[in-house]
Every structure is written in structure tokens, then in C-alpha cells.
Amino acid sequence: MGLEQTGHFKVVWSNQWEPSTKTQHASQVYTARFGPESHSNRDIDTVPIDEIPDHDILVGGFPCQDYSVASSLKSSKGLEGKKGVLWWSIHRILSEKQNKPRFLLLENVDRLLKSPAQQRGRDFAIMLRSLINLDYAVEWRVINAADYGMPQRRRRVFLFAYHKSTSIFKQLLKSDKTFWLEQQGLMAQAFPVEDLTAHTSSFFLDESLLRLSQQFNKGAKNSPFLNSGVCIDGRVCTSKVSANYEGPKTCLSDILENVSGRSELFLSESEIAKWKYLKGAKKEQRTHKNGFTYHYSEGAMRFPDDLNQPSRTIITGEGGRAPSRFKHVVQTEMGLRRLSPLELERLNMFPDNHTKLDGISDTKRAFFMGNALVVGIVERLGLVLHQNIRKVERQFYQRLGEGAEIVQTP
Asked: What 8-state DSSP symbol labels residue 112?
């Protein structure tokens, strides 16, 4: 949705499939809003490549899982990805498509840069080397939407990848990598940063995915990947950057609606003590069901939430009446209450009632928003990509006419 709202991109194929549920609610919402044409509601691993049309941009979000590779006697390459991991489904499309997409826009939670705990950064290293082997260059940034005036503190890592046939790839190859991260790169153009003064490093990735899987950063306490970086021809340049933004800001109070008729959202007097306990600091002795006794402690969370700041990150368990440490609670003239599904949509910058559909509960709508992106981030990235296509990909742009064609995966 974020790219289409720029007016410069057209979705030619999309896929949404939720393996853990029989009723495909997310797919239902998608088709209700965008139509069923060229939409797939099947496990992406079962979709033949020839059913996926050629496209200019592949867009995808996927869970942060273990992306390790293993030896395989059946594979001519000697490697295979772990089954059920969506990254390897995206990799399959890129590997088997004769006409590879020229650009990729991918998203994940920011812990991708430092997972798994036993080999910090290994999974991201495997992704980067996989893309390099497919003739792409990559730049990435961890972006907190609230740092750029948006209504939610939500951190995600975004990746742009450029095929070697593009002028952007050639431009990156020749550029000073630090300058690219500071000003020249597409991420920096979309989301400006302060000048880099420190915390910059460079290293090469092993050419072998198997060696990366087994040896990358083994025994180290920290990931070598910082919150910004580029990788081209195997060389990584990574830096720690800070947002540079002085524009308007949206607070939690700005997205609230009048819910005077929604009694189910308000906390009863009998519930408030439980909410305060869950939100409060704790230092207590607890006993596990096996009889083991241990000391448990955690810090306090603000209760109710600060209306004069961007919201905390929405989680998938945001819906439902049950008291929770992590759900949002706001103070209004009518009392303490939870957020409505529409307010959660606004925190992700969706159109009002985007997920409202017959048969879809408020709890499910909240779940969707816990899994969603802040649309404003994607819109800004799409605009900058379009501007650069026009500027340095003139021949390509003329061929496209009015816009680029994209394929969406979950």
C-alpha cells in the first residue's frame, strides 16, 4: 500500500498466506481493499516461478528466523536453506527468475542484525552474501518511525538492493561508502542522518555460505553490523547513525477518536489494580510449577501512556480486554481505556478502518497492526526510489512509462 500511494508503482502480483490459521483474514482484507486480481493466497513455496510475472521491484517482509544453511547431497550447489523460512522463498524467486527484479525493498525486525545469540549477525551475513551471489548490492538502515515525526516508536530494518544492471549499483560501486551512508544513498535521502563522526567499520564477507553459517562471528559478544550500512562485491561498510529531523511530530493524543459509545474499551474499577500491578516495578520471589524458586524483577512502565509523545510499539497481543503489561492504556475525560482498532491503524498511518471487515474481530484487527509497518516509512522510501529511477535510470524509466511494476510477498 505504501508504494502504491506514491502514485508511481503498480502491483502486478501479491502473496499473503498465514500458515498458522485456517481462515485467511489478512488475505481477505487485502482483496477487499485492493481486489483479488493477481493475488495469491497460497504458501509461497508451492507457487511455481512461472506463475509469478516479471517485475521491476520485489517487496517483502518476513519473520526474523534462523536462516542457517546446511550441506545437502541432493543440491548441486551443496547448500540448502532451512525449510519454512520465508527468506529462502524470496531467494528462490530471485534465483529462478530469468529476468530478475532490478530493485528489492525488504523489511525485518531490527534484531535481524544481531541474530542468533550464538553467532551475532550470522543470519544477516547469510542474507547479504546470498544477495551478492545473485548480483545485487545492498544498503540498509534501522529506522524508528517516531524519529521522523511519525506517531509510533517502531524500529525496523529496511533494505534496498540494486541489481548490477542498474545505474544505482554502478553509482554505489564508485562512491565513497561513508558519504553514501551520510548523504548520497537512498536511505539517507529518505531519512537524513547526522554527520558520521565515529563507529564506522569495514570488512569482507566469506564467499562460502556454508562457512558463514558455521563460522561467522563465532564466539563474539556483539554483531559487527551497525544500524546503517552497505554491501557490494562482498565488502561491508557499516556505521552507527542518528536521525536528523526537525519537522512536525505526531503524538499519541493526535490520533485519538471519540469512543464514548465503546464501553468495552474502558477499564472497570475492579480491573485497574491488576493493570497497575502488571505495569509496575517488581522484585519478588516466584515458584515454578516444578517447584524451583527464583527471584523475579522488572522495571515499571508508564501508566497510563504519555499522550504528549509518540506511542510505544504496537504488539500483536494489543487487542482484547484482559489486563496486560504491554497493551496501551490512555487517560481520557471518561476514564482509563484501551486503544480502538481505528486508533491502532492510525499509529501505523493506515487509512481509517482499513482492516474493518465483516467476520474480523477487533482482536484480530489489533493483531494485524502488531504485525504491520508504519506506512509513512514505506511511502518515503518509495518516493526516493522513484526519484532516483528518474534521475539515473532514464532509459529504464522511459520503458516503464507511468510507473514501476512490483511484486509483494508477505
From this structure: G
163-167, long-range: CB < 8 A, 24+ apart = 163/100, 163/101, 163/102, 163/103, 163/135, 163/136, 164/135, 164/136, 164/137, 165/102, 165/135, 166/102, 166/103, 166/393, 166/396, 167/392, 167/393
Q: How many CB atoms lie within 10 A of CB 269?
A: 8
3-state secondary structure of 148: helix
Distance CA 154, CA 375 (A): 11
Residue 282: CB partners within 8 Å, gap ≥ 6? 296, 297, 298
Contact, 367 vs 20, CB < 8 A? no
Residues 343/314, Cβ–Cβ less than 8 Å: no
Q: Which of 64, 231, 237, 251 is catalytic?
A: 64
pLDDT over 90 (residue 42): yes
Q: Describe the strand order of the beta sheet including 103-109 as a list of residue ranges.
A: 39-40, 9-15, 404-409, 57-61, 103-109, 155-163, 136-144, 228-232, 235-239, 200-204
Task: Give pLDDT tens digits for 65-96.
Answer: 777 776 544 443 444 566 667 888 999 999 99
**Which is it for strands 335-338 and 103-109: parallel, antiparallel or unpaired?**
unpaired
The domain of 124 spans: 4-244+374-409
Q: CA-to-CA distance for 93 and 280, rounded, in angstroms? A: 48
Give the global pTM: 0.92
CATH code of the domain covering residue 343: 3.90.120
Number of domains composing the chain = 2
The pLDDT of residue 75: 44
**64 counts as catalytic:** yes
Using one digit for the tens of pLDDT, what is the confidence trace for 293-322? 988 899 999 999 999 999 999 999 999 999
Q: The domain spanning residue 179 has which CATH number?
A: 3.40.50.150
Rounded Cα–Cα distance for residues 121 and 111 (Å): 9
Give dist(CA 172, CA 140) in Å, integer.
13
